[in-house]
Amino acid sequence: MNQPYSEADLERRRSASRRLGWLLAAAVAAIYLLGLFIKR
């Protein structure tokens, strides 16, 4: 059975997904911290 993606391609996808995850986590943390400072 041949794989649709090569090992190098999979590693590139993994690193891109990791970066996206960190970026999303940073955005969520920033929104949360802004929410602490903005009083309703």
Largest sheet entry: none
Q: Compute the CA-based radius of gyration.
A: 17 Å
Gross geometry: rod-shaped
| Helical content (DSSP H or I, runs of 4+) | over 70%
Which features would summarize this protein structure in a list?
40 residues, single chain, mainly alpha, rod-shaped
Could you please describe the fold and organization of this structure?
The chain has one helix spanning 7-37. With 40 residues, the protein is an all-alpha fold. The protein is rod-shaped. The mean pLDDT is 91.
SSE map:
Blueprint: H1 7-37
Brief write-up:
The protein has 40 residues and is an all-alpha fold. It has one helix at 7-37.
